[in-house]
Amino acid sequence: MKITFHGAASEVTGACFLVETPEVRFLIDCGMFQGGRDAERKNLAALGFDIDSLDFVLVSHAHIDHCGLLPRLATFGMHGPIYATQATADLLPIMLKDSAHIQEKEAAWQNRIRHRGNKRLQRDIAPLYTVAQAEACQRQIHGIAYDNPFEPHPQVRARFLDAGHILGAAIVEVSVRDRGKTTKLVYSGDLGQPSRPLVKDSATVENADVLLVESTYGNRLHKSMETTVDELVDAVNDTLHRRGGNLIVPAFALGRTQDILAILVEQTAKGRLRDLNVFVDSPMATRATEITLRHRDILDDMSRQLIAAIENNSLPIRIHFIDDVEESIALNRIQAGAIIIAASGMCNGGRIKHHLEHNLGRPECSILFTGFQAAGTLGRKIVDGARSVKLFNQTVPVKASVYTLGGLSAHADRDALLAWLHRFKAAPRRVFVVHGEAETATGFAQLIESDLHWKTRVPAYGETVEV
Q1: In sequence order, what are the residues at sequence separation of 6 or more whose Cβ sits closer than 8 angstroms to the Cβ of residue 374?
Q2: Residue 467: helix, strand or coil by DSSP?
Q3: pLDDT per position as a tens digit, 339-386
Q4: pLDDT tens column, 424-444
Q5: What is the pTM of this model?
Q6: What is the distance of C-alpha 198 from the center of its chain?
Q7: What residues pair up with 404 in beta bridges, in sequence order?
Q8: Helix (H) or strand (E) run with residue 305 in it
């Protein structure tokens, strides 16, 4: 059996792993590269393998860096089924359609700029895929319940386990038969930090022949949840009530937005926050929240109680879901008292860029980052202390306060990752550390070797290994 690492190798985004034997070829994840100057080039160059002969795809979860190239894959000739958990199967259509919409808008904007400078240009920039292509891809998606073994191919048996990351996120177990021998491959997907809002803790895996483990935060520890909530409460009260500005929250529409809403509701119920006016300015986040409510059976107990409180409308908090573009534009006229949550979480696209344009230069306002900001993204530049940033070809000064809530990450930190690995009853034969920036992944691989005495390595982009 061979594995080729077509993404998330010494970097955080673009998860895509090709598994093949003489009898079967399939992908685990098919994610988009995000952030950095090379992201566009990598996305255009991605999928540089024989697509027609792929039998199926297994998707760990619905974040774009794990699923975002699925429509392009299908457009280029992958006609087989795409398997994911039931919740992820519900989420994928809205995530992919929204991604396509953003790409179409970005391509149209770039073409307008290019034509202004050279009216003789004959060929326009095309998006990676269109909304129509994203919609067509939906017919190939099949939902599978957690813990339910299935056979996507006569030579393959698979199972999704709860990864504790976002709604529907899965650890992928795959047993592949090759020339009379069965190899069990386990891909951690994105593992969640224990005791976080909404989702249950990650499931235990006891054994594997080959393990692919993520390392996003393999070099650091998160702040405690208690400290994180205290910082969020302080950011809200300081910005809204003491300085009289707006609080702008870049957040992934799936997972992080729902986490923030859950904490705001909980802290309002406890009396630590009051009279909140919250605007979720993301059609995708609205749909993701609706799907979350449909899958409350896989949420934790506290989340189900908070959902009941929201539905009873018994708390002094007003949550507005903004779909219409004109309503979104109208938010920019609000000078004070608003919490505006919008995608994307790393500020690379979507409505958040407009809210940053209107609030970054105002010292009474604040920007609240709630998760990892990949190298090269607009969010990373702001977090790293840039005095100004480029937005829509204009220089915007950064005068707003900047808060970073590292403890709210949906990714497991170093100790949580190690704790998950320690639950294995035996060492895997091969361990590959993926989904982490090069230095982080290398450091975490060394930590695994010293702590667990497992043989590990960090694969290179495009590398093929035999296992």
Answers
A1: 12, 13, 34, 35, 36, 346, 380
A2: coil
A3: 999 988 889 888 999 999 999 999 999 999 987 787 888 999 999 999
A4: 999 999 999 999 999 999 999
A5: 0.86
A6: 16
A7: 369
A8: helix 301-312
pLDDT tens digit sequence for 379-425: 999 999 999 999 998 999 999 999 998 788 889 999 999 999 999 99
Tokens representing 81 are 């089924």
Place of tokens 């409180």: 309
What's at 408, amino acid-wise? L
Question: In the numeric block, which tokens belong to residue 195?
Answer: 């005791």
**55 with 65: CB under 8 angstroms?**
no
In this structure, are residues 350 and 342 in contact, taking their beta carbons and an 8 Å threshold? yes
Query: Look-up: residue for tokens 């915007």?
Result: 396
Domains of the chain are 2-220+410-466 (3.60.15.10), 225-408 (3.40.50.10890)
Q: What single-letter DSSP state applies at residue 217?
A: B
Whether 119 has a pLDDT exceeding 80, the answer reads no
Q: Is 225 exposed, middle or buried (0-12, 13-18, 19+ CB in 10 A)?
A: middle
CB 10 within 8 A of CB 437: yes
Whose tokens are 């809200």? That residue is 236
